[in-house]
């Protein structure tokens, strides 16, 4: 009985404290871009895992910020990949180059890839550390179609393409 009263009292103190705390600042969206990413694999992906050089390039033909109305990026890295294990999670960095008046943005992020139906969805969450929009948080989501099994069994999958979105915001 005593324990339940203490627990109930703690809940009331926490709720009163939360209600009296200063309101959180709303995030200000600085940039939203919609585009396409192309990913190439050398050697092409098969069902056998092997060291693969992955080249990523993206274009944002439509961005909301007047100082950066378009954008591009490119990145190359190596990892062990196959048609069954396309991407790995981990830290990386890429540069967004803007069409407009803003300087390029250095984006340091953590990538997490997951299978979602017939797609591999990669979410890059991180921070713009320098250049245009710095400092600000950013999230980029890329969706690539799952490789065709017949291609994986024969010549392999040399490239994939899909939609990408980027949101940059300050808190």
Characterize this entry briefly.
The protein has 2 helices and 8 strands, in the order H-E-E-E-E-E-E-E-H-E. The chain has 171 residues and is mainly beta.
Assembly level: single chain
Query: Between the first and last Cα atoms, what is the distance in angstroms?
Result: 44 Å
Instruction: Quickly give the structural class.
Output: mainly beta
The helix content is: 10-25%
Number of strands: 8
Q: Low-confidence parts lasting 5 or more residues at pLDDT below 50?
A: 1-23
Largest sheet: 8 strands, antiparallel, barrel
Task: Spell the H/E element sequence.
Answer: HEEEEEEEHE
Number of domains: 1
Radius of gyration: 21 Å
Main sheet strand line-up: 1-2-3-4-5-6-7-8
Mean residue pLDDT: 85
Silhouette: elongated
Protein name: Ig-like domain-containing protein
Signal peptide: 1-26
Keywords: Signal
Could you explain the architecture of this structure?
Residues 1-26 form the signal peptide. Keywords: Signal. This is Ig-like domain-containing protein. The protein has one domain (24-170). It is 14% helix and 62% strand. The chain has helices at residues 2-20, 149-153; strands at 28-45, 50-63, 68-81, 90-100, 105-116, 119-131, 136-145, 157-170. It has an eight-stranded antiparallel beta barrel. A hairpin with a 4-residue loop joins strand 6 and strand 7. It starts with a helix and ends with a strand. The model is unreliable at 1-23 (pLDDT under 50).
